[in-house]
Amino acid sequence: MKFLLEVTMDEGALAEDPTAELQRILRYWGGNLTHYELRPGAESVIYDSAYREVGRWSIEGQAE
Fold first, then answer.
1. What is the rounded CA–CA span in Å between residue 15 and residue 24?
2. Is residue 54 within 8 Å of residue 14, measured between CB atoms?
3. pTM above 0.85, yes or no
4. Could you read off the pLDDT of 49-62 as tens digits, one per residue?
5. In a domain, 14, yes or no
């Protein structure tokens, strides 16, 4: 299985301060993973601090 995280960094809060915004996204979504069953097919949209959609995470592949 693979955990994939994709974030667009060329506009909004990520373009203004990419380091701080990416740190916030990683902290928030890392803590939020406890609310998901981490299995193939699991996914969620990722939002920046202005609640704009900037990407998504997903789990792909087959469970072993």
1. 14
2. yes
3. no
4. 999 999 999 999 98
5. yes
